[in-house]
Here is the input.
Amino acid sequence: LIFANKTEDDIILRDEWNKMTGLRAHFVVSEDPDSNLHKGQIDNDYLRDTVSDFGQWFYLCGPQKMVDDVRTSLKALGAKADKIITEKGW
Here is the structure.
């Protein structure tokens, strides 16, 4: 799970994500300069450093611009378009 938010206070269910067996949770913040979490956007460099298998399924949810940007990055790194699932209705 890669979960992006503006600040650490915006991360819902953080403790629950961290406790889930078999789930590796990575948190990213874009507007929290005092955070020890990764700061910035989910881009090619971040994905390359975080994801070990671009042949897996990817499920994207969030603002349309972010979804579009992450989809573009995933495809540039080798993910197949038919394995990138997004919400309908955006």
